[in-house]
Every structure is written in structure tokens, then in C-alpha cells.
Amino acid sequence: MTTTEPAPAPVPAQAGAVPGPSADEVAERVFGSVLAGFEAFAVYVGDRLGWYRDLHAHGPATPAELAGRTGTQERYAREWLEQQAVAGLLTVVAGTGDADGARRRYGLSAGAAEALTDPDSLAHLAPLPRMLAAAATRLPQLLEAYRSGGGVSWDELGDDARESQADLNRPWFLHALPGALRGTPALHEVLDRPGARVLDVGCGAGWSSLALARAYPRAHVVGIDVDAPSVGAARREAVAAGLGDRVEFRLGDAAALAADGGYDAAFAFECVHDMPDPVAVLDAVRRAVRPDGVAVVVDEAVAEEFTAPGDEVERVMYGFSLFVCLPDGLSAPGSVGTGTVMRRPVLQRYAQRAGWSGVDVLPVEDFAFLRFYGLRR
């Protein structure tokens, strides 16, 4: 007599299921995301502890040498060095047969050194994981904001966030912005006026303001921001650069401070999407800029319309929006809650409500992940 096991009951179809990736594809995607997250945090560690900079300055090191030179703990240094070599960011240059790894020496290639230690390089992305780390420290607050409303302000995200933003923008503003402006005649002619007054709304740590002043030595630049630590850092940089007589930094809301009029040009670099009330600020900018002046919004170069799946730029911008920009914007009462992914029709709507007739995309290409918009009277 034989018996047979009963056939397993079929798994019921998911209610409302729609076509999409398989379970294996989703699992692989989640695994890859976690792997990338771990590696980003390891870059954060190497950046914050000075390990990359030490390897670049002093050459290949064993774990003991790196720990001794940087005042850190050898066992952690060894684990980090091994992880970085496995990830392909560091190179093992000696001691490959060392069983316990204590005598292995690790070094940085020229390309890795540029991307991870050179603050003047356009490829310098070591500051980027700082933004991820800033958001990670606030995940409980973010979850609460998602449940009940409100947000997490820029000030609450702390120094990692503000330093990440400043250090990522620094090389682009100092080295790429002057050429971009000179290559756009409508902007260059105004900025090159003798005694031109230039307004920099949402100036942050001031690198955009300093770049404008350096590129146009006859101009006087006024930077405005609501973040006190950033304004303090900007003032120190202006003094260090010898530009304190031509660059002024003010702490406050641009909706009020920009209304003193008489500016030849106004810029808003990567900040309109963060503003609780962008219409009020754009209206203040309109009133502050002379009729024969120019006003420019520089914001994320997102797609013209929502498309899913999206490309890597869209994906990273939604990441910034979920964990940084949208929570920051919604931390202010009555915020419109724009988020990082501000497409042109949204900016057009804000501009028109502020009294501008429209916006035009300016011919500035390959400028980080940013797009230049001219506000039209």
C-alpha cells in the first residue's frame, strides 16, 4: 500500500497585483541597495577620520601605521582597510600573503585620491555620504514626520548635511561657474557692469557668492541665507579669500531682505525647491532686481515629466527629496512642500504667481546635476 503527500495548496494571487519585477529581481535590488549603503557609510568613515587624506599624504600604510598616524584604533583600521580593498577603492600594494593582515600595506590610486581627497576636483564625491549619514541619524524623526506631518529641518540635520552640501558645490562654483556665466552673454553682460550689485539668495556657505565676486571683480555681492552656521562659515571664507570688502553675507529670510531694490542680477542656487514659500521669495527677487537686470534659478536637472522607472539622476533626486529636502521644507508651518524633484512646470507656476511672465532654460550644460533657468519679466 502506498501513500502520497497531498499537493501543496496554491498560493492565492495577490489582491490587486500589477505587472512588475519578479521576487528574485526585487530581492537582488534590495541586496544591492544595502551593499551600496554599507559602502557609502565606509566612505563616510574614511573621510571623517582622515584615513583617505592620510594615505594620500603619506603613502601606503599597514593598519598599525594608519592608526598611529591618525590617532585611531588599529583593529578598526584593519577592518576598514580590508573592506575598502574588497570594495575596490584601495589597492593592496604589499603583504598579500599575510594571513592575519597585520603587515599588509594599502594605498590609494591617483584616481581614488582625486575623488576622495581633492576638494578642488569636480570628481570630488567624498562629501556625498555625509548627507546620507545626516539623514540616517534622523530616521526616527523622519518616520514620525511621515506618520503625523511636520518635518526635519536643515538645522536638525546638522553639520554633516550643511558641510556635505557646501563641499559638493564648492569645486563647481569656484571652477565651473565663471565659465558658465561668461558663456551666456545675457548674464555676462549684466554681471560685468561697473559696480554691478548681485544678490545670491540661499547662499549657504557662500561658495557661489565668492565665485561670483572672483569672476566679476567690479561687482558687489550680497548673499542671504536663513542658516546661521552657514552664514558664519561664509563670512569666514570671505575674509580668508580677501573678499570681505565686496561680498556681504546676511542672515535672514530672502522674502524680506531681498526687497531693498537696485540689484543688477539675482541668483538662487539649488534652494528654491527647499523654500516653504517660494512664491514670496521669487516675488521679492522680482522687486529687488532692476528692470534691465537678470534673475536666475539654478536647480536640479530633473526630467521634464514623471516617468517610471526613471534614470539614475531621478532616483538620486528622489532619495534627496525623501530624506533631506522635503522634510526640511515641511518643517516650516504652511510650507508648499515642493521637494527636490521640482520640474520646470512647477517652477513656471511659482514664477508666474510671483509676477514673472515665465522661465527659460539657459544654455548651460554639464554643470553637475543642475539646470539654469532665467526668470522672464
TrEMBL record:
Coiled coil: none
Residue span(s) of domain S-adenosylmethionine-dependent methyltransferase Rv2258c-like winged HTH: 41-117
GO biological process: methylation
One Pfam family hit: Methyltransf_31
Keywords: Methyltransferase, Transferase
All copies of domain Methyltransferase, residue ranges: 194-307
GO molecular function, one term: methyltransferase activity
Stretch list, region Disordered: 1-21
Composition bias, Low complexity: 12-21
Protein name: Class I SAM-dependent methyltransferase
